[in-house]
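[[Local backbone shapes]]
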Amino acid sequence: MEFVEIKRGEFGKFAEKAGRGESRFGQANFLQSAEMYDRYVTKGREVYLLGVRDDGKLVAAGLCVAMQKIGKWKIFNCPGGPLIDYDNTGVVKFWTEGAKKFLKSKGGMILQISPNIISRERDIDAEVVAGGEDNIEVRDGLVKMGYKYLGEYQQAKWVYKLPVSDADLDKIYKDFRKGHKLSIRYAKDRYGVKIRGLSYDELPVLKELAAEAGEYHGFRPPEVSYFQEMYKAFGDKVKFLVSEMKDPETGEKVVTSGGMFVLYGPEVVYLYSGSDRKYKKYGGPHLIQWQMIQYAAKNGFSNYNFYGVRPVKGNGVYAFKRGFKGAVVELLGTFMLPLNLAGVAYLKTKKCEEMRGVA
């Protein structure tokens, strides 16, 4: 085997294939994509595409970006990756050792990874499915290689997904919570809500909506520059949508909600959103979701990914997403590997951050 730095084009082809069943792990995700690499390059970030060849064939790859500097040392992140058949511990170890040596030579002290694979299969209520998929042995194997398991740390560990197919659209809709179906129907037929895409120049509209949602739900929304960078890097693989209607009091057209959706690999990812709470009852967010679920099903995607959730009782975002049915997906979580003595010392300050209330 040979550890190599690979070109953007080869990485892109490999990254897209990672969701097509060449191993039992479907890993393709937008965080490990040629488009995300382009975004980092445009921003002037230090980013590397690191792979392993076996007999000339690329068998592992990871996008690693310098995300933080502590003193003279750097922390490198491989979000949603690396893309490897995790059953092949020899290749995983070879990539790890190669990345460790390479990134250490670039001033790295930590390599952080977040493999895009399931930890334990869960149902809609986040309960472990008896006899379901279980990859705890992968977690334990990474720990044996020297990684420290951090659990829910920076990268989303708990997401929510709905399997979709064009043939099942009627059933998918029928399974929605009753209140969700009413909101969708009323939005279209009673309130005249319409959905449209945003142009590049209109992206500040989504920033404003996301800021309001962030203030209400307690998260920090991205700057408008993030939406602009994603728009440029992903092109037709990203959609920015808003719902609009006539204000019942003034008759003026108003934007009631909006969202950002990334189309990559086997899934459509609902990444960011926001809404004007004044118009909450008019169903804009529900209608946007239904339109994109239909889009995913009709365009050959296998999953609609609602992305991050906190699957605990009383969480409003979780309640909204589970109303569309589907299931909680528990990903493996985040790991850190020390690259030098400074990294070893840094890791001593980090603790596992598993979510309370979920077994």
